[in-house]
Automatic annotation (TrEMBL), chain A:
InterPro entries, per database record: CbiM/NikMN (IPR002751)
Principal place of residence: membrane
Pfam families named in the record: CbiM
Protein keywords: Cell membrane, Membrane, Transmembrane, Transmembrane helix, Transport
Keyword DNA-binding in record: no
Biological source species: Persephonella atlantica
Domain of life: Bacteria
Record-annotated membrane-spanning stretches: 12-28, 40-60, 72-94, 106-125, 137-163, 183-206
Bilayer topology term: Multi-pass membrane protein
Keyword DNA repair: no
Protein name: Cobalamin biosynthesis protein CbiM
């Protein structure tokens, strides 16, 4: 789901840098307030874990491949602002070290997966946890990833409309929304299951560690 | 007689035949794979020459093994773009003066994953400690 360099027009990534910069500044302030002393070691482990799992590609039916991100788990444990900052750092390092995601597209990846995905997971969990905690955790992970995938598809799919030459040929990503939305969403219907399970398992490990200490 | 002469003169211009030539040449091969080894097969690509970044020199689909093959006709930096409809792909700049077989080693990738995980984990551990001190 990481969008590489060369896929998005400056009309997309320049405003994204402006929006993301504002969110990063506010996010660091919120993280400072929200982060508890006892959760710092778990946060560092989760950040490292998120870095690793989002580089492990899993084959998907239909010939593509995808990966989990850890959006849901980070968001339900630490809140969506901390999740956003952690994932932003993870995506930046992945872009620099692996070329997985780009430098120009970095703010788009960070805002879509880190912020939009994180906020979705957080509120899905908050609204559903009274009904059933495990179901709420699963759906938090699942929906966080799926909504991120949807917005990734939209950002890719609008490129032919907003960046093309005089003849109408796309200058950047060539496929429009009618192709990108199903092409990105359908594989993530499967990947989301993995993300949901990861959120449930991760949460239970977290509770076991910290409930034991408390 | 005049009719025969007319046909001989214009035969080359009115013919629709395409002359083919089969020969061996050295081409540039860009092989694209997902990190799990699965080839980036049958996906769209465009190749741009150093002197024209607007009209593609070649375009098509990667082969079954995820390869893009083209024959540069001049030196300089060539740009190869490949896209799948689900947002995977790459934009690669290839300087054909400096062409060599570069392939990422799987052990290099593993080492970088470990290094990245250590950097990320360590960084957030430090951030956590710094935030705690500031309080």
């Amino acid at each position: 789901m990481h969008i590489p360099d060369g896929f998005l027009s400056p009309k997309t990534y320049i405003p994204a840098y402006v929006i993301a910069s504002g969110l990063w500044i506010y996010g660091i302030k919120k993280m400072k307030k929200e982060l508890e002393d006892k959760t710092v070691p778990f946060l560092s482990v989760m950040a490292a874990f998120s870095f690793v799992i989002s580089l492990i590609m899993v084959p998907i039916p239909g010939g593509s491949s995808g990966h989990a991100v850890g959006i849901g788990l980070l968001s339900v444990i630490f809140g969506y602002w901390t999740a956003f900052i952690v994932l932003s750092v993870v995506f930046f390092l992945q872009a620099v070290m692996f070329g997985d995601g780009g430098i120009t597209t970095f703010p788009v990846n960070a805002v879509i997966m880190g912020f939009v995905g994180g906020i979705t997971s957080y509120y899905v969990y908050r609204f559903l946890r009274k009904i059933n905690n495990t179901f709420a955790l699963f759906l938090a992970g699942y929906m966080g990833l799926l909504i991120s995938a949807f917005f990734t598809a939209v950002v890719l799919g609008i490129q032919p409309y907003i960046a093309h030459n005089k003849d109408g040929n796309p200058l950047f990503f060539p496929f429009d929304l009618s192709i990108t939305v199903p092409a990105v969403l359908v594989p993530h219907l499967f990947i989301g299951i993995g993300e949901g399970i990861l959120t449930v398992v991760g949460w239970n490990i977290y509770r076991r560690i910290y409930d034991g200490k408390d | 007689m005049w009719f025969v002469v007319f046909l001989l003169i214009f035969s080359s211009s009115i013919a629709h035949e395409v002359i083919t030539q089969v020969k061996k040449e050295t081409a540039v091969v860009v092989e694209a794979r997902y990190p799990d080894g699965m080839p980036f097969s049958y996906e769209s690509y465009e190749v741009y020459s150093p002197d024209n970044s607007k009209i593609p020199f070649a375009k098509g689909r990667t082969d079954r093994n995820g390869r893009i093959i083209f024959l540069p006709d001049k030196k300089g930096v060539w740009i190869v773009k490949a896209f799948s409809s689900d947002g995977h792909g790459f934009v690669k700049r290839i300087d054909i003066k400096d062409l060599e077989n570069k392939r990422e080693n799987s052990s290099d990738r593993f080492a970088r994953i470990v290094a990245g995980a250590v950097i990320t984990g360590g960084l957030f551990f430090l951030i956590g400690i710094l935030l705690r001190r500031k309080r």
